Amino acid sequence: EWQGLQQPQLEGFTGFVPPDGTGTNHVCIMGEAPGEQEARYSKPFVEQAPAGSCLARLLRRAGLERDSFVLSNAVWSRPPNNYLDGSRIEGEALAAFGLHRERLFDLYRPHVVVALGGVALRTVSSYGGKGTGITAVQGYVLDGPRDGMWVIGALHPSAIMRGEQRMSGCVCWALQRAVEIAKSGFVRLPANYIVHPSLDDALAFERGYSPDQHFLSYDIETLEGITDEEEAEEKDEDISYTITRISFSYDARNHHAISLPWQPPYIEIARRLLNSRGPKRVWNGNFDNPRLAAAGASVMGRCYDSMWAWKFLQPTLPRSLGFVAPFYNWTGEPWKNTSAGEPELYSCKDAHALQLIADGVDEHLKQKGQWHVYERHVVELGEVLTKMSANGLPFDQAKADAFSLELQAKWDERFARLQQRVPDSLKPSKQKTGYKREPKDLTGLVQREFPELQPDFSIMPVTRWCQLEPFLPTSSKQVMDLLRHHGQPVGRNHKTKADSADDDTLKKAVKRLSKVKKHAALVEI
User: Fold this and answer.
1) Which residue of 146, 273, 345, 390 has the fewest C-beta atoms within 10 A of its own C-beta?
2) How far apart are CA 176 and CA 180, in angstroms?
3) How far, in Å, CA of 139 to CA of 238, rounded?
4) Which contiguous run of DSSP H or E holds residue 72?
5) Radius of gyration of the chain (CA)
6) How many CB atoms are closer than 10 A to CB 470?
7) Cis, peptide link before residue 265, omega less than 30° from 0
8) H helices then E strands: how many in the chain?
9) What pTM did the predictor assign?
């Protein structure tokens, strides 16, 4: 099938690895480029290779046959040092194998391409750039390179092996969904969003909501836009309390949502909706609810934080709204990268996605018999903790100040004792090269040797006066110098493999040296 296609002559690239598999299920699995074993066996994702072995396990776990797919790579030759993603030769290599990929699509005519990794995603879709990388859009159904062809992104098996084992189930799900779409087709359902509502639109939406029948999902946008819920949690206190708009949805089946600007008269409508007695849904209520309360729009009725419902269901997976949406009937494209360009539409999609996810997660919790546990240990407990937080804790500023002074005094005492025990030779000099001229006042100064560059470019030690800085127990370098001074080994960072003097190293040193009397002074230090 590949006769007449000349292998591109790319500097440093080796081997030629054409597609493999029958493609009978009309799904193409596309990776990045061949590795050493793939180039040796001339077979993509060969089972003898680490990534191929991982993919084989994922396919078995998903109940799928490898041979029913067509497996290929975006680039069909092995790049130098197995490095392609983000390299200067990526664009050239992808362009060189463009005709090969077209021949693949002509012969196999896949309905769906599962793009494993960022390179494959950029090759067969318009996604993969900043803000729309593989981690941001995995699981979404994207427009493919040809009419009627869809693309689903998933992590590359090599990423699973490099520490993302928690995402292996998501890759299995993407493969299964691709097979189902290839068999049954896929349609993007039209949205029923009210993006720029008139006052009559907003009042009609309010009349259509029934507290006795509907869950009301809501989501706010603030002056400082944050699109990632986990990021919002980390910097919650630094984010503006100025609300710019709020969106609502109570009918996910019909893709119904509305986005209201946070200004009169829409604020009163939003307050009435939030003050209704019916149950509410939010994603990360720890962020939204305090800001609404500060704006005089407290949320009434039982409030279900669907982010924590998802976390209760899938505790190891990311909890951002954009990550979860593809798993629960979201038929649109990714939208989390559109907050700046289309804020009104973005706001509607947030509320609609929340309603879709919440419907699905609640149903899954009930199917697994976990709903009552979630409601008691998350929802009801959250209500108690929220009330406790509102009541606050007794606080005496005078006692707090006195305790702070007590702690500072203890710190100062221990720091002074530490300086007495650490040799001066281990304390850093305040002057990097010492005083070049002898100071008139030598009080508190010591003499130390410093390296000096000579006219012949040799380095000679010179003795100069200098002022010593205190030994810092928070300096990893100084602590390592202390250990080496006493002939003790330093630790090693497990990730970087660099020398370290972290807490584990010091705890082990204390445990080891406590048994030797001559090291009593070092143990105290």
Assistant:
1) 390
2) 6
3) 32
4) strand 70-73
5) 31
6) 13
7) yes
8) 21, 15
9) 0.75
Per-state percent for the chain, helix, strand, coil, to nearest 5: 45, 15, 40
Q: 233 burial class (0-12, 13-18, 19+ CB within 10 angstroms)? A: middle
DSSP secondary structure of 457-504: S-EEEEEEEEEBPPP-TT-HHHHHHHHHHTT---EE-TTT--EE--HH
DSSP string of 88-151, one letter each residue: TTHHHHHHHTHHHHHHHHHHH--SEEEEESHHHHHHHSS--STTSSHHHHTT-EEE-SSTT-EE
In whole angstroms, give the CA distance from residue 107 to residue 117: 24
Tell me the one-letter amino acid at 490: V
Is residue 6 over pLDDT 90? no
Q: What angle do CA 503, 506, 511 make, to 5 degrees?
A: 125
Residues 389, 384: Cα–Cα separation, whole Å: 9
Instruction: Please choose, from the candidates 372, 353, 360, the residue with its C-alpha nearest in 3D space to the C-alpha of residue 310.
Output: 360
Cβ proximity of 499 and 492 under 8 Å: yes
| C-alpha triplet 480, 482, 486: angle, nearest 5° | 115
Q: Which two tokens stand for residue 167?
A: 């995402």
- pLDDT confidence bin for 345, thresholds 50/70/90: very high
CB 104 within 8 A of CB 149: no
Q: What is the pLDDT of residue 4?
A: 66
What is residue 494's predicted lDDT score, i.e. its pLDDT? 77
Tokens of 275: 């003050």
